């Protein structure tokens, strides 16, 4: 399968799917992803809940969920390095516990992030920074513009489910 024939998948990462302050933003983003899929701009999308971060120096990192977050963020960082961009909102912090006196390393993640893939290759991660910040919404805008400007995408037959 060539690069252009590889499935074009968007992975959306959110802190929560619960009702609250970010619910409208998540719902709008999901609606846009559904539209991009139905328009043929992407082949599929996945949604992952990753909370607000993960401890880096505890048994948590040995769990499937902890390993998943660490592996994804490592892949995002590799993409950012190769693309000469900085990842926005992915921060490592050390906190000190007043109760135990121990220091803990934590990785915080953005409230919402997007990873665009073709097959196994990462094509884009948002939020990221170059001359300015590219948000998840900015990247979805670009995908929507590509759909409108690419007659093959607009004319693509709908996928059979």
Descriptive overview:
Helices cover 34% and strands 29% of the residues. The chain is α+β, with helices and mostly antiparallel strands and 161 residues long. It has one domain (6-155). Helix 1 packs parallel to helix 3.
- Give a short account of the largest sheet: 4 strands, mixed
User: How many β-strand runs?
Assistant: 10
Structural class computed from helices and strand pairing: alpha+beta
Multimerization status: single chain
Shape assignment: globular
- Any low-confidence stretches, pLDDT <50, length ≥5? 151-161
Rg computed from alpha carbons, rounded to a whole number of angstroms: 18 Å
| Average pLDDT figure | 88
Give the distance, in angstroms, between the N- and C-terminal Cα atoms. Answer: 21 Å
Q: DSSP helix count?
A: 4
Percent in strands: 25-35%
Helix share, percent: 25-40%
How many domains would you count in the coordinates?
Answer: 1
Strand order of the largest sheet: 2-1-7-8
One letter per element, helices H and strands E, the order comes to EHEEHEEEEEEEHH
Provide the descriptors you would attach to this structure in a database record.
single chain; 161 residues; alpha+beta; four-stranded mixed β-sheet; 4 helices; 10 strands; globular; disordered C terminus
Q: Summed up, what is this model?
A:
By secondary structure, the protein is α+β, with helices and mostly antiparallel strands.
How are the secondary structure elements laid out?
Blueprint: E1 8-14, H1 23-38, E2 44-49, E3 53-55, H2 64-82, E4 86-87, E5 91-96, E6 103-108, E7 112-118, E8 121-126, E9 128-129, E10 133-134, H3 136-149, H4 151-155
Parallel strand pairs: 1-2
Antiparallel strand pairs: 1-7, 3-6, 4-9, 5-6, 7-8, 9-10
Helix pairs in contact: 1-3
